[in-house]
Amino acid sequence: MTGRILILYTGGTIGMVPSEQGYVPTPGFCKRLREQLGPLAGQVPEYDLIEFDRLLDSANLVPDDWCQIARLLQQHWADYDGFVVLHGTDTMAYTASALSFMLQGTDKPVILTGSQIPLSQLRNDGLDNLVTALLLATSGDIAEVCVYFNGRLLRGNRARKVRTTGFDAFDSPNCPWLGQAGIHIELRHDLLLKPGRPQFQIPDLDPATVMILGVYPGMPARLLTAALDDERVRGLVLQTYGVGNPPDADQALMDTLATAIAKGVTVLNITQCPEGAVSQGAYATGTTLNRLGVISGGDLTPEAAFSKLHVLLAQGLTGETLRQALTRPLCGECAEPTGDSA
Predict the structure, then answer these.
(1) Which of 22, 54, 215, 240 is packed most tightly, with the most Cβ within 10 A?
(2) pTM over 0.90
(3) For residues 341 and 297, is the Cβ–Cβ distance under 8 A?
(4) How many beta carbons lie within 10 A of that of residue 235, not counting itself?
(5) 177-185 — which CB contacts under 8 Å span 24+ positions?
(6) Do β-strands 145-149 and 110-113 pair in parallel, antiparallel, or remain unpaired?
(7) In this predicted model, what pLDDT tens digit does every residue of 258-306 receive, in sequence order?
(8) Are strands 235-240 and 266-271 parallel, antiparallel or unpaired?
(9) Superfamily for 4-187?
(10) Three-class DSSP category at 40
C-alpha cells in the first residue's frame, strides 16, 4: 500500500447529515471521516482532501460541474498517485462518463464512489466504499476513470445506477466488472485500460447544447419540435425501442428529425433496453434512421451517450470526424461498431 491520494468531496449522500427536510450536504466531511476511521486512520493510504465550497446533492448537478471536477483533477494531476471523487449516486454515472472523455489518456486511477447511507449514520456503506476506493487508487494497476461501489469496480463510462435503495446500486450491464472486492481485491487485468499519455481537453459546456429524449407509443411530433426549437441545441440523444427502432410510421416525427439533422443537429440513437446494443438496420424501422442520417450509438449507456456527445461537440468536432468519434470507443465506453449499423 503506497502512494499519495487526493480525495475530492463534491457532496452526495456519503457526507450528508439529517435535517427536518431530509438528508442535506454539510461541510466538515474531513473531520467526520477521521472520526469514523478512528484508530484505523493510520492504516489507510495517505490522503489529502479538498471539500467543494458548494456541496452538491447530485440531483442538482449540471454539466459545468463535470468541468469543475475535471479541472481540479488536472490541476493536481502531477502531485498525486491517484484520485478518489466522492459523489452523489443519482448522477455519478454521468460524471464518471464525462470525466473519462475529458481525461483521455489518463495514466492514473480516478475512482468515483459514494454511499446509499451517510457516513454520519451508525449503519452505513460509505466507510467501506471509501476505504476500498483508496486502496484501489493506490494499487498501481488502474489507469482509467472507474466507479467503485459495494464490492464492484466498474468502468466509469459503462456504469449505471440500477437500484434506488440496495447497497449494490451500480452495475455495468454491457461490460464485465473490472474487479471485485471480497476477502481479496481481484482485478481483471485483461480488461483494464493500459496507461496512456494524458491528453486532457476540458471544454466549457453549455447545458442547452445536448438533449436526451425517449420515444414512447403515440409520442407527438410537436414534442420533438418544441425540444429542438432552441437554436443552441446541437445534439440529441434519442432513446428508441429494442435494437434501435423508432415509430417510423409517424411521418411527422420522422420529418422533424430530418429537418433537425439538415440544420446541423447531431442525432445519436441508443436503445431503451438496459442490456444490448443498437443494430440500426436490423429492421426496416431502423433503416429509416440510417436514411435520415441518425448515428447509431451501439451499446452506449444513456449517461455515456449524453456526456460523450456533450464533450465532443464542445471540443469542436463536426461532420464525419464527429460521427467517427461517436461510433468508436475512445476510452472503453462502447464496443467497436459492426457492419450492420451506421
Answers:
(1) 240
(2) yes
(3) no
(4) 24
(5) 177/152, 177/153, 178/142, 178/146, 178/153, 178/154, 179/136, 179/152, 179/153, 180/151, 180/152, 180/153, 181/132, 181/136, 181/148, 181/151, 181/152, 181/153, 182/151, 185/132, 185/135, 185/136, 185/139
(6) parallel
(7) 999 999 999 999 999 999 999 998 999 889 999 999 999 999 999 999 9
(8) parallel
(9) L-asparaginase, N-terminal domain (3.40.50.1170)
(10) helix
Cell numbers placing 311:
464533450
Strand partners, 11: 56
List phi, psi (to 5°) of 340. Answer: -100, 10
- Is 13 known to be catalytic? yes
- Topology of the domain covering 210-327: Rossmann fold (3.40.50)
What gap in Å lies between CA 323 and CA 317, rounded to an integer?
9
% residues pLDDT > 90 (the chain): 87
* Side chain identity, residue 201: Q
For 167, the grid coordinates are 447497497
242 — phi, psi (to 5°)?
A: 50, -125
Which uninterrupted H or E stretch holds 7?
A: strand 4-11
Cβ atoms < 10 Å from Cβ of 313: 20
Query: Cell numbers of 318, please?
Result: 463536426
Q: What is the pLDDT of residues 151-170, one digit of tens each?
A: 999 999 999 999 999 999 99
Q: Select from 251, 250, 280, 265 the least CA-distant residue to 340.
A: 280
Q: Which of 2, 10, 13, 285 is catalytic?
A: 13
Judge whether 278 and 244 are in contact, CB under 8 Å: yes
The pLDDT of residue 2: 60
Query: If we measure between CA atoms, which residue out of 126, 118, 59, 128 comes closest to residue 94?
Result: 59
Domain ranges of the chain: 4-187, 210-327
pLDDT in the model for residue 265: 97
Q: What are phi and psi of 302, to 5 degrees?
A: -55, -40
The 10 Å CB-count burial string (b at 16+, else e) for 116-138 is bbbbbeeebbbeebbbbbbbbbb
Asked whether the domain spanning 210-327 has the same topology as the one spanning 4-187, the reply is yes
